[in-house]
Amino acid sequence: SAVISQKPSRDICQRGTSLTIQCQVDSQVTMMFWYRQQPGQSLTLIATANQGSEATYESGFVIDKFPISRPNLTFSTLTVSNMSPEDSSIYLCSMTGSYNEQFFGPGTRLTVL
Amino acid sequence: GENVEQHPSTLSVQEGDSAVIKCTYSDSASNYFPWYKQELGKRPQLIIDIRSNVGEKKDQRIAVTLNKTAKHFSLHITETQPEDSAVYFCAASKGNQFYFGTGTSLTVIP
Hints:
By secondary structure, chain A is mostly beta strands.
């Protein structure tokens, strides 16, 4: 299966600032996704990163807060904007495999002070 | 939208015993049901999956069953080992939409 990497692996940020998380896949994939996993919780889909068009956001998530880029078939970024402590979470990117399975990146652990 | 419920939220078993985790889903159009294992501080890892045209699938000590009529599916782990201790998530999917259960924290007691 493809190798998925994320940068940074963790960060501690101040309230009101923004952080951009990068996701790199070692092969071209059609679908990439961004999830949030709050401490001790399940995975919540933020948005689908579409190559060449705007991301598709799930209910409760908006582009102004979580802008996403997908410049090509191997790379995507998620920005967490104007952060507050409630944004402290693990952010994971994922990709679909040949049979529609989803594989996850290692995650970015974000702490907002 | 789809609603996936998962039970139990925590499960403790003695090493060597079996563990069963159950999930229900609401959308009859869902046709793909993966299970993920997440160890502390690690990413979720796909461990087994089943599609709606199959009723049961087995991979060594792990098996998954699917009852489409009742809209539930289960993960069975036999001969549990301490390294099976982790959080397990079920999911239901149609197309590219994945809906995850709330997770089961499994502890295998040596």
